[in-house]
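[[Sequence with tokens]]
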Amino acid sequence: MKINKLSLPHPVLGLGDDVSGDYTTSMDVVMGKDKIVINIVNNISNKSIEDMLSKKEAKFCVDINCPKTLFRQTYLSTDRRQKIEIETACLRDKVMASFYIIAVKDAANFKPTGVNSDYENRLFTIKAGDVLGYGGESEFIASKKWEDQRGISSFLVIHPGENKNGPYAIDLNSDRIIVTLSKEDYSAFCTASQSGFDDIFLSSIVLPVLIYAMNQMLENVKFYEAFKWYQLLDFRIKNDKDINTLEFEPVNIPNIAQLLLASPLSRTLTKLNLFIDNSLEVE
């Protein structure tokens, strides 16, 4: 349930300016072979709702939804720190998490601390299950190997084409970005990769493809957001601590792409200089 654009019949902490105070969350995901562990920290500052939590009249509620597997489950807790364990087989690809505080008991004459003056000192009747606080949403990508998400092969694949030579082609209409090289270029690419020149491959092929793909992410969100490559890149852009300080907008895309690939140009130049130095020594 998404409530950030709805108006409820009673004031909700974290929904517009209904109630003064804050309700925010942070989430950390640990991928295991058999289980996915989701650690959540709830931060709240509103006396009346904090009192309800301490009296167990309200609870933190996390809604976990995986469209790919149709898994959906809610998890309740009165603890600010929540630990949720889900079997790995239950989640795949994009997983959504929504955060709420809900009433677990009926309450008459409810009026939270710092309620907006628009409510004119009204008192509200709250039923068990009603939303008292909204902590927003987050998402993560569930894969059997969490570390695979950081590898290029998780979002991009190189294929040989039918043409003997010519420019490469980019196809974004699959779960992985498909780069098709001419037969001659593909053969040269395989030789270079096996010879330790993979950084040159990153700079000359993957970097420009990634920049193009991210521009398409901004321009055609609705069209590409269902593809796994989009979801993986979107997750990393939002969650990588070295990247999420940059606004995801056209002017920053070249910098973001280089951060995603760990500065491939610098590594390419370093490797080329070593190659040149070794060649001069041989002569």
